[in-house]
Amino acid sequence: MSKRKAKDAHLPIGECINQVHQILRKRFCHQQLPDKPEGVEAQHKHLAELLKRTAVHGESNSVLIVGPRGSGKTMLLRSVLRELSQETEVQKNLLQVHLNGLLQTDDRIALKEITRQLQLENVVGDRVFGSFAENLTFLLDALKKGDRSSSRPVLFVLDEFDLFACHKNQTLLYNLFDVAQSAQAPVAVVGLTCRLDVLELLEKRVKSRFSHRQIHLLSKLTFPQYLERVRDQLSLPDDFLDGKFAQEWNAAVTTLCEDRSAEEVLQRHFNSSTDFRSLHTLLMLCLSRVSVARPSITPADLLDASRLCLADANANMLHGLSILELCLIIAMKHLNDVYEGEPFNLQMVHNEFKKFLQRKSNSMYNFEQPVIMKAFEHLQQLELIRPADGASAKTQREFQLMRLMLDHGQIMEALQKYPQCPTDVKQWAMSAFA
Amino acid sequence: MKYFTRLRVRRIYEWRGAALGFNRKLQTYEYGSLSIRVEGLPHSTVISAGQHILIEGDDDDNPYVARVVRLFADESGAQKKAVVQWYVRVSEVPPGKLKLLGRNPHPQEVFFYEGRSCEDEVNAESVLRPVQVRHLDAAAPFPVSEDGDIFYVKLSWDSRTFRPVDPSLLDASRPPCRSLPLSPPSSPPAAAPAPGGPARRALPTPDPAVMRGAMATPASSRKPGAEAESLHSLTKLSASKCLSAKRRSATCRTPGVRKKLQLSSPDDPAALRDDVLQQLLEAELEKGRRSAAAASPSEPLRITHSLTPLRRTSRTPGRHDDFPLTPCSVRRRESQSETDSPPAGDDLSSPQLESSSSRRRVALRRNHATFRETTSTKRKEVQTGTEPVLEVLDEEEEKNCALRIPRRQSALKVSSRIRKQLNLLDDRLSSDEDEEEEEFVPSRKELQSDEEEDDEGDEEEDEELKVKKSRRSSSSAASRTKQKTSARTPRKAGPKTPRTHHHATPSIPNRAQPARRPGNILEEARARLHVSAVPESLPCREQEFQDIYSFVESKVLDGTGGCMYVSGVPGTGKTATVQEVMRCLQHAAEQDEIPPFVFIQINGMKMTDPHQAYAQILQKLTGQKATADHAAALLEKRFSHPAPRKETTVLLVDELDLLWTRKQNVMYNLFDWPTRRHARLVVLAIANTMDLPERILINRVASRLGLTRMSFQPYSFKQLQQIVTSRLNKLKAFEDDALQIVSRKVAALSGDARRCLDICRRATEICERSAAQLVGMSHVMQALDEMFSSPYIAAIRSASTQEQLFLRAVIAEFRRLGLEEATFQQVLVQHQALCRVEGLQPVGVSEGLAACRRLGACRLLLLEPSRLGVLQRVRLNVSQDDVLFALKAD
């Protein structure tokens, strides 16, 4: 590595690393669109043709893009729109309205947003933002006035489409689909959702008006393709400032992908999830370790990043507990074992703990009841335990029924890593009679 | 001015004198006159045949206007009836039809009603009091009057078009004993409402204030009383009046003589007014002959010009000498072009001219504003006018001065009225001007929008422009607003909140390039198969069409009301059929086969709240805007009060079930109104469920809905095939087998025609991509697959390894528990065991939870809220068999 640094004459190494960070971060964090759709060519063509017909012929359409989270629904739509915007005929005609179910939580807000994005609010001053009813009639009138051949087509993009189906009476969806199915201003309604059962959410009248076109984005990625994608994501473009550095970087990436341990890590990630977002998180963690001193990604980096990604949050939290709190958790675990997951209360936990102290009192004190209570409350605040369903707040705190929110595996794992854990506590955790 | 309604006073109606005769055929007694008096007051009003009267209607402020033709009582003598000839007020003409008028209606204008849809027999006890109706010639201006009790009739209205009133018609229908207001110039001076002055004064008034008002009103206008007054004040006037006094004495038909006559016999004011008119006519005729070479027989048109300046001048008689001379020529040109127009004043009612005039109105309004600013200049032309005009002018001045001296305060109000009239007049005048007048158009924008708008949009355009112009010429806007409001409710003291934005509906902007036409056969087929394409006919719904048609037709013919409930699953053509029926009926009404009716539709899904239904109905019926509560009250009044001249209203209520409220009062009202005697309302309610009345309606609503029901069955495969074939209309784009499989498949699933059309449309797209000429089996199968295949199995197959393992763990845990539900913790144990079997590293809790949540987001699993962590319960949203099938094939 030091050799490589010495050879670098064109640009200082710091500058190169800076550039690498900039380029790759843009890819991982800003969701930069890839140049070409990968693996979704058919869907891309279908959507592009559909929107083009709306823009050019004034044909009304409605379509749903369905796929799991991170499968590239928005990316598909954005790349189609980017492609369409390069054609002047489309670009000049198409009006766009983007709505998101998480932002427009009811029809009233959605209607206001539509009016705003269509820039209709200036036409009659403030009156538009009168009552909800006025707003609706206003918009419907506006759409009704148009016709297929003369008005500009409107593209409605409904992100998180399933949330719109929760609106009262589904008024907005009914009206949008009704416009799409009647001789009014041409509209294209594109819904994006990750729910496969979205059609069942639609009311029967709304469902009848929907054209039932669905574009499913289901990745059929194999592991070699996944590896290929990792390489693409990490590689530097050809037009990188310092050609020599880029060559070396790309070669390092290739060797990384062929490395046995790195491949294992990636395989594990591939097994867990195939979407872009989790991959980007992993690669981002690797990238952040790249510096002037370590100008390439090594398999060890990947391993560390993977460990960070897959780390168990709750088990990590156990490391920060006091010995007393840990003992209480262990007592709860034993209670869970004995009573097969039935809820417990503070008194039971304290008794279990006292039994342990009686047997092995050499290393632990008997704590006062208030101290035990304090520790118990701290565990509740950390949400490691939570009140059982239906337990009323009226009962005394000592007798309130609780459930443990941890799995046995998590507890044992945490005990292994706990710094300076007394041996008898460890043994107690292994067996209730230790 | 208030009307006396039954609510406030009890009026007593009695026959005056004995019966004139007994009609054996009809078993009725004929009477000559009826006297009305108010309980507790000595005065009584006499109504006799031939007189014009006000009849109680659904609007207290706007009672109906009519003329009594005959008075009679039934055999027992208990029921007093009257046969009347109706006049229609401006406010009663549908707002959409007012455009046909081609000008702004005068608030006091009425139209001679020639339609047939109204019964002409009314209860005599609904008569309020006598009123004056005067005939004006089509081109004559409306006289300025403060009095709301004089109505002017120019045109007749047969619920479709305006026509000039044929004076002979008025003559023919005039009963022998009484005379109508005369129609100039041929008819002799006749005594119109005989008891005009005295009767009014003797009108029974319970309220002294109202009484005073009634007394004062005639005095404020040029009524007998006022004219008497004017004579008294004559002495105060300038020397110019002496001239007219001289003139008066010169001929026996001069106003002076008239006045004397009036003083002696105040019974005939209307007749004398007509004489004045006639006099003016003659004078104007002379002027016309002199000024315009091309004198046509259309003298009435001419009057317009001469009268207008007169009215104007009358306001400011003292400033005669300081007028610039220029505008005179403009006027002259107008008058010439006026002469060229067709005679007898029917130019206003001829449709082509109307449309062009309304189109030009916008541009010309600015023109009027200029005219108004130089009102004084207009006066000049009077000066340049001929001698007789001057004389008459002076005559007019005299009267007006006399009026103004005692009440200067009212001058402002009066002048604003005059302005309004001028505006009206100019509107009408300019409608006949040449295109070159367009140069008065104030801004390019207005011109543009004017050109863009077609005739139908004109009304709205006017409204919008009004807003824009309001800053520039506020007076114009104000006066127009006033007209607008007064057209609706002429009695309101002043314009309330001006409804300037009323019709302003912006539209989606127009596209830069025109939409491309369909290029090849497949594109053409796709355009025809789109659900929005309106087919020429609706195949497979002939029987339903016939049933609905005959139902509505019979109701319209009988003038009764009724309800019909139409049900059927979505996409079976309910709304389309009803709309088709209404289109046919409207066509029939245009062909005069059935009486005209109003059709409005509302949709439960297109309103935000069930109560908005009232507001929408009212708006579509009358153009009025009101809150839901107010609209409900107005509609209630409209449908429950006897209104003999009402057209049948057909109301289509789509998606009825959404109008459900807890108390169901919206539905109750909708179905209750048709049962009212006077409502003439036909309600067609559409919903999906067949047994909606039984299921969600409470008894009193279900009972009112009645048993006239119709249910649309889902289409059978043959019908679906026929629908597609008829839409394609011999366009060969599909293989027959392909069509059949689509229709069979859809018929088996839902029978929804929309679905069938959508699949066919998708099939053409697939076909286009595969570069085939004809849509075949394979294309259709692919389209069907896309639309009907369940995505679950594909989704499971494309899930990641850990997700698939998790699903297997879920099933394993279910089997172990024998339940369809397990906590995540339990499943995780299974999952980790499966991982070991598969030779994978066991998953941690976080990793397992992530996989679980991803499956939950797709709704392959149903999860509890994630804050429960490992304790959340997991259920499958697909059948276990599906999951196993999907995973086994892997």
Gist of the model:
The complex is a heterodimer of chains A (434) and B (890). Chain A has 434 residues and is of the alpha/beta class.
Explain the overall architecture:
- The complex is a heterodimer of chains A (434) and B (890).
- Chain A has 434 residues and is an alpha/beta fold.
- Chain A has 3 domains: 176 residues, 3-Layer(aba) Sandwich (Rossmann fold), CATH 3.40.50; 90 residues, no CATH class; 119 residues, Winged helix-like DNA-binding domain superfamily/Winged helix DNA-binding domain (Arc Repressor Mutant, subunit A, Orthogonal Bundle).
- Helix content of chain A is 55%, strand content 8%.
- In chain A, the strands form 2 sheets. In chain A, strands 2-3-4-1-5 form a 5-stranded parallel beta sheet, with helices on both faces. In chain A, strands 6-7 form a two-stranded antiparallel sheet.
- The relative contact order of chain A is 0.10.
- In chain B, a hairpin with a 5-residue loop joins strand 4 and strand 5.
- In chain B, helix 10 packs across helix 13 and helix 30 packs across helix 31.
- The longest helix of chain B is centred in the N-terminal third of the chain and has 23 residues.
- Chain A: Component of the origin recognition complex (ORC) that binds origins of replication.
- Chain A: Keywords: ATP-binding, DNA replication, DNA-binding, Nucleotide-binding, Nucleus.
